[in-house]
């Protein structure tokens, strides 16, 4: 009971968490349904992943035009400068969305959602923020993606280091001057490769602590000609590209090449070996140091080609091949200790000024599981996933009514172009809420059997691929002690979106409605 004089708890129809691609994809749809929508963002600006991960060289590896919202009113007067946009340009794009859609009344910054409980009488969520504020919403939609909980490995002595330590996922917003510095970096995933190729030339020395080589592919970056882009827009090429994403496996404009050894390389080890060897030969030509050749493109691949995400690189191999860049394989030379001045392995102590942790995320499930969102049985999402990760179609969870999440576990997430995935999920959520409005439905909940069915299908799709052979974050294998299980839908985008819409068209199959 609230006592007299206490302010009323505000209410909105829809609360979106995180001001990135997911939230903006859904925002206007909800506004057009006449709903009162709010976005709560923990940071001080929008951009989502591009707000937090503003490390040197951070850039997307989906190309223009498909890495943006598919709305014509946004793309008709915004043109990206590069084929693969970097974080400053993506931030500029988010500013464009804010201005164009006049969103200032809808987004609140420095609002860190801590937890939520479902009010069974009202059929509404009561959401709490770390500043003590509360808000009720009918529809609660976390749009926090798969990478909002960073991971730092338990390297002994990490806190003893007296130089500067930076994690790529929370890079200082004001930037860091790395010129002429002695730098150590742990991690060679997508973030790590981008940092290395950006700072390698500037650093006095760069020592890379690598556990697994990244099978990088050339990015083929180029500046876009604004006139050419305008012509493409006028010709309908952008619309065609967005529409093509609906038909492809990963929501890109292209699909697997329909030629043996390419389209079966993720399913057949022999075909995969051929793909790996082809890749290896082309990379070896770019590296002079035999030691670096061995470490970056080993004769015996540690995992099948493509079962960990291959980065798109620009000059990575040339940058790493320089004498002031050293690679230490932590499998042979584990980091024994971080001291006040550097990193110690059996090869000795490497003294550095800066330590960069490009060590990734508690990926896919960590984003939602870190929140204290309590379901109708009193348990949190982390409790619900204690024995296995389970969702209904990668968008909802039984016992968490009126809650949808975008770009999270058991959706095409890691295997897709992000804006395509959020677009198709947002279309489904829009359709569901539209029907709910029309039919006076105030409570929607995924059925437990729908969740079981989806988990079964998740495993069937996963088990026929070579993905289980890699210790990847795709299956949670990057976090010591975590259950290794498929976290991303490997059945392709068309089958995914069809499953979502079928459930509505088949009289809410798999859903309780009230
Ligand atoms: O994280 P990661 P990320 N000792 O988990 C290593 C998206 N993204 O931030 O491979 C030593 O891939 C770990 O080694 P290993 C994209 O989807 C996109 O780079 O587990 N090393 C690995 O090398 C991407 O895939 C873009 O053996 C340790 C690294 O740290 C995802 O985010 C850009 C270690 C972590 O790599 C995650 O990328 C950036 C230890 N104890 C991110 N623990 C673009 O669009 C971990 N590592 C371009």
Care to describe what's here?
Helix content is 29%, strand content 16%. It is an alpha/beta fold. The strands form 5 sheets. A 7-stranded mixed beta sheet has the order 3-2-1-6-5-4-17, covered by helices on one side. Strands 7-16-8-9-12 form a 5-stranded parallel beta sheet, with no helix packed on it. A 3-stranded antiparallel beta sheet has the order 13-14-15, with no helix packed on it. Helix 13 (418-438) runs parallel beside helix 15 (493-505). It is globular, with a radius of gyration of 23 Å. The chain starts with 10 loop residues before the first strand and ends with a strand. The chain binds 3-acetylpyridine adenine dinucleotide.
List keywords for this structure.
514 residues; alpha/beta; seven-stranded mixed sheet; five-stranded parallel sheet; 19 strands; 29% helix; globular
Write the layout of secondary structure elements.
Layout: E1 11-17, H1 21-32, E2 37-40, H2 49-52, H3 72-75, H4 87-100, E3 107-108, E4 113-119, E5 124-129, E6 134-142, E7 164-167, E8 182-186, H5 190-199, E9 205-210, E10 217-218, H6 226-235, H7 237-244, H8 269-284, H9 290-296, E11 312-313, H10 316-320, E12 325-329, E13 337-338, E14 342-345, E15 348-351, E16 354-357, H11 366-369, E17 372-374, H12 381-384, H13 418-438, E18 444-446, H14 448-463, H15 493-505, E19 511-513
Parallel strand pairs: 1-2, 1-6, 2-3, 4-17, 7-16, 8-9, 8-16, 9-12, 10-11
Antiparallel strand pairs: 4-5, 5-6, 13-14, 14-15, 18-19
Bound molecules: 3-acetylpyridine adenine dinucleotide.
3-acetylpyridine adenine dinucleotide (N01) binds next to helix 5.
């Amino acid at each position: 009971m609230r006592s007299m004089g206490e302010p009323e708890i505000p209410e909105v129809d829809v609360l979106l968490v995180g001001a990135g691609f997911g939230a903006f994809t859904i925002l206007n749809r909800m506004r057009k349904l006449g709903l009162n929508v709010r976005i709560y963002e923990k940071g001080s600006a929008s951009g989502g992943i591009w707000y937090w991960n503003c490390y040197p060289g951070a850039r997307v590896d989906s190309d223009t035009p498909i890495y943006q919202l598919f709305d014509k009113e946004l793309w008709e007067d915004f043109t990206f400068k590069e084929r693969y946009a970097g974080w400053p340009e993506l931030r500029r794009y988010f500013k464009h969305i804010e201005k164009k859609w006049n969103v200032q009344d809808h987004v609140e910054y420095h609002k860190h959602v801590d937890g939520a409980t479902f009010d069974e009488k009202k059929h509404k969520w009561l959401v709490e923020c770390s500043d003590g504020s509360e808000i009720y919403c009918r529809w609660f939609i976390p749009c926090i993606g798969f990478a909002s909980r960073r991971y730092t490995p338990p390297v002994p002595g990490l806190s003893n280091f007296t130089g500067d330590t930076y994690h790529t996922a929370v890079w200082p917003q004001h930037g860091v001057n790395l010129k002429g510095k002695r730098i150590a970096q742990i991690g060679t995933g997508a973030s790590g490769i981008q940092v290395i190729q950006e700072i390698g030339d500037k650093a006095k020395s760069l020592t890379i602590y690598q556990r697994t080589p990244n099978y990088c592919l050339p990015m083929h970056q180029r500046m876009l000609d604004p006139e050419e882009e305008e012509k493409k827009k006028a010709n309908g090429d952008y619309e065609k590209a967005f529409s093509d994403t609906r038909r492809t496996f990963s929501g890109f404009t292209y699909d697997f090449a329909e030629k043996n050894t390419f389209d079966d390389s993720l399913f057949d080890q022999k075909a995969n070996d051929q793909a790996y060897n082809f890749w290896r030969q082309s990379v070896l030509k770019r590296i002079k140091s035999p030691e670096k050749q061995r470490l970056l493109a080993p004769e015996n691949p540690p995992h099948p080609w493509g079962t960990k995400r291959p980065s798109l690189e620009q000059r990575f191999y040339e940058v790493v091949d320089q004498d002031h860049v050293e690679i230490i394989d932590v499998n042979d030379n584990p980091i024994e200790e971080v001291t006040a001045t550097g990193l110690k392995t059996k090869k000795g102590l490497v003294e550095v000024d800066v330590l960069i942790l490009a060590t990734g995320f508690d990926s896919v499930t960590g984003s939602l599981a870190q929140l204290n969102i309590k379901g109708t049985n009193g348990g949190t999402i982390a409790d619900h996933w204690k024995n296995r990760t389970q969702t209904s179609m990668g968008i909802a969870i039984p016992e968490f009514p009126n809650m949808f999440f975008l770009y999270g576990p058991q959706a095409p997430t890691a295997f897709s172009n992000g804006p395509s995935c959020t677009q198709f999920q947002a279309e489904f959520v829009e359709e569901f809420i539209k029907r709910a409005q029309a039919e006076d439905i105030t409570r929607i909940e995924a059925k437990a059997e729908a969740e079981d069915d989806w988990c079964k299908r998740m495993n069937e799709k996963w088990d026929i691929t070579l993905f289980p052979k890699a210790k990847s974050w795709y299956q949670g294998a990057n976090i010591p002690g975590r259950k290794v299980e498929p976290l991303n839908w490997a059945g392709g985008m068309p089958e995914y979106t069809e499953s979502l819409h079928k459930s509505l068209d088949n009289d809410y199959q798999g859903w309780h409605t009230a």
